[in-house]
Design a protein that fits this description.
Blueprint: E1 5-12, H1 18-26, E2 29-35, E3 42-47, H2 48-54, E4 64-69, E5 72-83, E6 90-97, E7 104-113, H3 119-122, E8 127-130, E9 134-139, E10 148-151, E11 160-162, E12 173-174, E13 183-188, H4 196-202
Parallel strand pairs: 1-4, 2-6, 7-10
Antiparallel strand pairs: 1-3, 2-3, 4-5, 5-6, 7-9, 8-13, 9-12, 11-13
Length: 209
């Protein structure tokens, strides 16, 4: 698991509204907002292209970011963004402030390793299905991982990896929203079926929050 902090630079938006946002976009700027914690909600603008590039990097979506706003720094999380339906253009972006001593909830990606060397694949040419590609966790900002690693090197046919099988970093806990133990990965023979538990789990992936 990796931990990192990136920086983004913004300024306060002096004019709001849809017409003002359209003018910003024509000038290569991106409208947005930063909200939450103890501060007021602030409308911001930032250079568009660096954010477009950052959004292509997985870690940008699951890292604590240092927002440099008019010369002052505060820690935020990316919470939402809207893309143009067919252009490579970000239309709006939302950041949420975080507090060092307050737990946060965040979906983080799963990174899979060892699949090709697992008994399921190496010995039985099984089909490995990734039911989940991310999980929701709760932790303090300092403990937020960029990703959680899933070791599939011991995976066998007819068995599943569940979320409670994952090795979590210190200070990190799962948020299951009432689900007991969702399936992450299953392994089945081509044209065949795994055991009943794996098959049932494959049909009921975790709901997104």
């Amino acid at each position: 698991m990796k931990f990192s902090t990136s920086s983004v630079v913004a300024t306060r938006r002096s004019v709001e509204g849809s017409r003002a946002s359209r003018r910003l976009r024509r000038d290569g700027k991106l409208p947005g907002i930063v909200y939450g914690a103890k501060g007021e909600a602030i409308s911001i603008e930032m250079d568009h292209n660096p954010i477009l590039l950052a959004l292509r990097v997985e870690s940008f979506h699951a890292s604590i970011l240092n927002l440099q706003l008019d010369g002052k720094s505060e820690q935020v999380l990316l919470r939402d963004f809207q893309m143009h339906p067919f252009k490579q253009q970000v239309l709006h972006i939302d950041f949420q402030r975080v507090e060092a001593d307050k737990l946060l909830h965040k979906r983080v990606p799963l990174h899979f390793k060892g699949q090709e060397s697992s008994p399921a694949v190496k010995l039985e040419a099984a089909l490995v299905s990734h039911v989940l590609n991310d999980v929701e966790i709760s932790c303090l900002p300092k403990d937020l991982p960029e990703f959680i690693e899933v070791d599939l090197s011991q995976l066998t046919v007819g068995h599943a990896v569940h979320v409670k099988d994952l090795t979590l970093p210190k200070g990190v806990s799962l948020v299951l929203h009432g689900q007991e133990n969702p399936v992450v990965v299953t392994a089945t023979k081509p044209g065949g079926k795994g055991d009943d538990a794996a098959a049932a789990g494959d049909a009921a992936p975790a709901a997104a929050s």
